[in-house]
Design goal:
Number of helices: 12
CATH class: Alpha Beta
Structural class: alpha/beta
Radius of gyration: 18 Å
Strand order of the largest sheet: 1-2-3-4-5-6-7-8
CATH superfamily: Aldolase class I
Mean pLDDT: 95
Largest sheet: 8 strands, parallel, barrel
CATH architecture: Alpha-Beta Barrel
Helix content: 40-55%
CATH topology: TIM Barrel
Length: 307
């Protein structure tokens, strides 16, 4: 399926049994729920999908589950987050064989590479398959920063099609556009900067909180695309306390707790992550339940021309 990288892409959670083994049935059920909620594409095994906590065979299983759940209705993109460039190339090639529609490629994990090493990494992965690639820049989480000037060096790689900008600095979107024009599709990757990113020209949004609130995510997107900024701002103000959770070190636990609260998944995470406890858990639950109580709900998308 062709990936145009535009719209709301769900950085989907991976479901586990209580013993932390893969629950593929629940994972597929959750992905189906996201598609029903109106998302434009799926990203499996990104940060939220705990991709780095899965072994190679498990990654193959989760990707297969995503493809089976999508049934060609939306593109399925897989995260490529490996410790070595060799490992990333291997998984990229395997993902192509399994039928993925695209790749979301991260820098090498653990080692904080220098700019020329990062460029080498992305070039190597890009040349290991024929799949279109979204470069994922998240210096806040991974300690490696692909600045606009670095990303501009990748314009000659034909399979690199998009950039997910998660630097926590929306100015990067303008800087990237000024450097490379529309060579790459630009996507926002920080939930509580989504509306700002769209206003500055982001054509896509890879979201975490969409896992629990897909209709509201889609509503916000559609209102912005229709230029109905006052209405979009109202939804954004309701949503922002939740979206702040996407910026925490414990974002995976927070998002999975939100899934559990709305009844679309469990909060089981794979160690070393542990479920939230104590005052932190109570505060996150308070935020989630307050949002559920006042959520736009079934009104999502009503009367929005872009829908």
């Amino acid at each position: 399926m062709t990936v145009d990288w535009k719209g709301v892409y769900a950085a989907a959670t991976t479901e586990f049994h209580a013993d932390e083994s893969l629950d593929l049935v629940a994972t597929k059920r959750h992905l189906e729920r996201l598609i029903d909620g109106g998302i434009h594409g799926l990203v499996v095994m990104g940060t939220v999908g705990e991709g780095t906590s899965l072994d190679f065979d498990e990654k193959r299983e989760v990707l297969r589950a995503g493809i089976e759940a999508a049934r060609g209705r939306v593109p399925v993109v897989t995260g490529v987050a490996e410790y070595t460039t060799r490992g990333a190339c291997r998984f990229a090639a395997e993902a192509e064989k399994l039928g993925a529609d695209g790749l979301m490629v991260l820098p090498g994990m653990v080692y904080k590479a220098k700019p020329h090493e990062n460029i080498y990494h992305f070039r190597a992965v890009a040349r290991s398959s024929g799949l279109p690639i979204m470069v994922y820049n998240n210096p806040v989480s991974y300690g490696v920063d692909l600045k606009p000037t670095h990303i501009a060096e990748l314009t000659d790689e034909p399979t690199i099609a998009a950039v997910k900008e998660s630097s926590d600095d929306p100015r990067r979107i303008t800087d990237l556009f000024n450097l490379v024009g529309d060579r790459f599709v630009l996507l926002g990757g920080v939930d509580d900067l989504a509306l700002e990113s769209i206003l500055l020209g982001a054509q896509g949004w890879v979201s975490g909180l969409v896992n629990a609130f897909p209709e509201e995510n889609r509503l916000l997107w559609d209102l912005a695309m229709a230029g109905r900024w006052a209405e979009a701002r109202d939804i954004y103000r309701w949503y922002t306390p939740l979206l702040h959770l996407d910026t925490l070190t414990t974002l995976v636990q927070c998002i999975k707790l939100a899934n559990a609260e709305v009844g679309t998944g469990s909060e089981t995470v794979r160690a070393p992550r542990r479920p939230l406890v104590g005052a932190e858990r109570e505060e996150v639950i308070r935020i989630i339940r307050s949002a559920i109580k006042s959520r736009p709900g079934k009104a999502a998308g009503a009367g929005v021309a872009a829908r």
